[in-house]
From TrEMBL:
<dbReference type="InterPro" id="IPR000701">
    <property type="entry name" value="SuccDH_FuR_B_TM-su"/>
</dbReference>
<feature type="transmembrane region" description="Helical">
    <location>
        <begin position="27"/>
        <end position="48"/>
    </location>
</feature>
<dbReference type="Pfam" id="PF01127">
    <property type="entry name" value="Sdh_cyt"/>
</dbReference>
<feature type="transmembrane region" description="Helical">
    <location>
        <begin position="68"/>
        <end position="86"/>
    </location>
</feature>
<keyword id="KW-0408">Iron</keyword>
<keyword id="KW-0349">Heme</keyword>
<dbReference type="InterPro" id="IPR014314">
    <property type="entry name" value="Succ_DH_cytb556"/>
</dbReference>
<keyword id="KW-0479">Metal-binding</keyword>
<keyword id="KW-1133">Transmembrane helix</keyword>
<protein>
    <submittedName>
        <fullName>Succinate dehydrogenase</fullName>
    </submittedName>
</protein>
<comment type="similarity">
    <text>Belongs to the cytochrome b560 family.</text>
</comment>
<feature type="transmembrane region" description="Helical">
    <location>
        <begin position="107"/>
        <end position="130"/>
    </location>
</feature>
<keyword id="KW-0812">Transmembrane</keyword>
<dbReference type="InterPro" id="IPR034804">
    <property type="entry name" value="SQR/QFR_C/D"/>
</dbReference>
<keyword id="KW-0472">Membrane</keyword>
Length: 150
């Protein structure tokens, strides 16, 4: 009876498979990192919109227009949009992979990807091309600002 040496499963000479991009590993890392960032972004957003003004009734078109006139808040909201949408889509992708099979799984993944891309594009366009002076407003002070800006 001969004794054969069995190589360890991860020995370099057994690496006949090429290393591929591991989407599950990076998806897991993304969920943790984006979750931490989203907590900061969401609570900053809530603080600025609900606590900082002192009362909720101050939130109107002029408040949003003033907020989106500041590039810092545009970047803040863009980060919030992108991180939240991709975070949610990654979670849905995991659920689809766990519970759907065959062609239905493929259809759901494509629908999820298309929906995510459309929402990211539309949200980004709204945040980056926002012009508060289009259309009328009931706020006389805001209307005067728009008239002076033109």
């Amino acid at each position: 009876m001969s004794t054969q040496n069995i190589a360890a499963p991860r020995s370099p000479h057994l690496s006949h498979r090429k290393r591929r991009f591991n989407i599950e590993k990076w998806g897991w890392i993304y969920m943790r990192a984006s979750g931490v960032l989203l907590v900061v972004l969401v609570f900053g957003h809530l603080f600025y919109n609900l606590i900082f003004p002192g009362k909720v009734s101050i939130l109107d078109w002029a408040f949003v227009a003033g907020k989106l006139a500041d590039p810092i808040w545009i970047v803040w909201d863009l980060l919030l949009l992108w991180l939240a949408l991709i975070h949610g889509s990654n979670g849905m992708r995991t659920l689809i992979n766990d519970y759907a099979h065959g062609r239905f799984r493929t259809l759901l993944l494509w629908a999820l990807g298309a929906t995510t891309v459309v929402l990211l594009v539309l949200g980004t366009l709204v945040l980056t091309t926002f012009d508060p002076c289009i259309g009328g407003t009931d706020n006389a002070e805001f209307a005067a600002i728009c008239a002076a800006a033109q």
